[in-house]
Amino acid sequence: MSLASSLDSPRPSQHLLLLQSSISQSCLPLIRHIITHNSAQKEPVKKLLFCVLHPPSCLVQDPAAANVQIYDYLDNIPGYSDPWMDPCSLILEAVKNVPETLPIEVIIDSLDTLLVDNGSQSQTYKFLRSLMSLISARSKPSRLVLHLCTPSEMLPLLVSTAFSPTIIQLIAHPPALLTHLATEYMTPPPPLSPEAKFWGVFIPISERGRDTEALIFGQGGEGSGGHSEMVVEVIARGGADNSGRRKAVERYLEGWDIDQGHSVDLSQMSSLISIWKRKVFVQEVAPDPTQNVSFNLHLTPSQQESRSKVPLPYAHEGVPSTQAMSAILYDPDSADDIDDDDPDEDLDI
């Protein structure tokens, strides 16, 4: 499953899509793509956008689109709005009002703000369970798209198989993170490094948000403006059915062109060109020491034949090889005191 396919349209068994932003990199370009993308199906997907953090103008390019329905709850703030209306109840009511025959995408921006407004983690989780039940029960492929910022209190609950057996997580990372790993840890992304080695380094560092923030906002960092590209970590869990059995987890990285609004290969990203540019090493042949000398070091064929006929000197010529290997040949010196008498015969032992 590619990044583009995970964004474009709901799949029959994939009812949950998590978009994870951070201070160093936002997922808003991916949300814009989901909202503006027209499904290839004959019947377009009805998109319900619930804004509780960012204004609709930041997410929707064409508010008049027929398949996009916007719910702006930015002014619905507990303690300030009179009267204040529970956004969870409003979202459930809006989803129930959509005809069952239509495929829908429920997009909530953002879940963390919704949790703050609701004030209860358990109540928010209960609301999401009810919302997932409404979406998964529809006859046409539908899904719930949740935008949250890592670290999030709701993330451990949402990624568990108890909430959804199948899930797609899209985690946004700045390109500077990959450049840092390739430079400081000598671990560029696959296929330049083995999969096991790269993920063993990438995962713990990426989960420490302060390290990534220091690369962007620290001394020498590029700041929030940065490049018009980002790296997306894709984590897909689940197969074709919704049986709840344990499924394999697929994890990979893809690039995203923010200006053009489409996915790109990591090797084609201009911000990562320093990683993929390889120096071509030409293997130099060692120079021949017999060249460029004032005399000839080579033998003619006749000289080689004469050399092969020269007998080599041996210390024990004519002795069979088996005897030579098993015998100790000793030539005594004139100062050696060699006799057959026992040197200790005078001792009373």
From TrEMBL:
Keyword Cytoplasm set for record: yes
The entry lists its GO molecular-function terms as: tRNA binding
- What keywords sit in the KW lines? Cytoplasm, Nucleus, tRNA processing
The record ties this protein, via Gene3D superfamilies, to: P-loop containing nucleotide triphosphate hydrolases
> What is one process in the GO biological process aspect for this record?
tRNA wobble uridine modification
Q: In which pathway does it act?
A: tRNA modification; 5-methoxycarbonylmethyl-2-thiouridine-tRNA biosynthesis
- What subcellular locations does the record give? Cytoplasm; Nucleus
What does the similarity note say? Belongs to the ELP5 family.
**Protein name, as recorded:** Elongator complex protein 5
Which species?
A: Rhodocollybia butyracea
